[in-house]
Amino acid sequence: MPLPLSGIRVIEIAHVMAGPVCGLLLADMGADVVKVERLPNGDGTRGFIPPDVAGESAAFMMLNRGKRGIALDLRAEQGRTTVRRLVSHADVIIENFRLGTMEKMGLGFDELSALNQRLVYCQITGFGRTGPLARQGGFDLIAQGYSGLMSFTGEGPDRAPVKVGAPVTDITAGILAAFGVVSALFERERTGKGQRVDTSLFEAGITQTFWQSAIALASGLSPGPMGSAHPLAAPYQTFPTADGWINVGASNEATWQRLTQALDILELQDDLRFRTNTDRMGHLDDLVRVLAPNFLARSTESWLGRLDRAGVPAGPVASIGEMLEHPQTQARDMVIEVEHTRAGTVRSLGSPVKMSGSEYAGGSAERRGAPLLGEHTREVLEEFGFSGPEISELMDSGVVL
Description:
Elements: E1 9-13, H1 18-28, E2 32-38, E3 52-53, E4 56-57, H2 58-64, E5 68-72, H3 77-88, E6 92-95, H4 101-104, H5 109-115, E7 120-125, H6 140-146, H7 168-191, E8 196-200, H8 201-206, H9 210-219, E9 236-240, E10 245-249, H10 253-262, H11 277-282, H12 284-295, H13 300-310, E11 314-316, H14 320-325, H15 327-331, E12 335-340, E13 344-349, H16 377-383, H17 388-396
């Protein structure tokens, strides 16, 4: 059976991360995603080297598998006209330039929706289309700061602010954008018309603050960093073991009692400081001081087995390499192989969404690797109605590659 978005044509005029993440997710669901790169150098992630595979950026290949690629000069009117012709026959366009950039090129929502009323125009910016920061450029680090994420990420009070290790606002913005695109396509089935989807790195960061914002809105107090601990439940954090670290999630009364049994410290069940979650949160420092020495007595692996038998949620702090090789990762098709024109067989991350009603392969339907710069230009232009002489003229003039 076809994938859910089979037959949907997407034009991705996006670079680096948020927009390409959106395109990647849509491609994994079966959409035909055509990545439009700007000449002369293409997407900036092509220069994120090292690491590389056969000279190709590993970062670029990770975010752009499953897509076809064309390259053109958006500074030239012929290049912009080419985009308009592509969009006239597309369902979706994704862009993540600074606010106003596409409008200056005559490729904004108003211009393109006039050409194609069914077009879903997905716009990802740093701070959204409205508000005092609308025209400010968007970068993950800056968005993490503005959104409050860095105020509660870190080891504890009076320590330097810490960025979340992953570019979480970029990735989340791409996920939100894909959700918005699919929602707009669904609504188009009822109305026959497309619309603009507008999200940002700033809002993506804010969506990660549900617990901390709940505390601030209810109490007027802004939570600070707590290391690996949870702001609303305890014990729910990392503890050192004899040979590493372990995460323990005994955050409700049942699992708390099981934890005291597994650690052989049943007396804590009657300790007034720890009887309820509210008590434990109010005496969190005391709780950690009491629990931590116990975990030092055994290895992480030993504790994992013991806690599993006791029914206490627990897990290791895995390295990226360990995660990639874990049997659960493999069972969920989260590491796949794709075929790249130059680099050959390349390992990549698979799609985190599986669909029972489709023949799902853990990635895009063809498991196509990321495109070379301009690899599919002629193929795509022909499919979108460009004649052979038109394509040759564009290539000879250097407008397309």
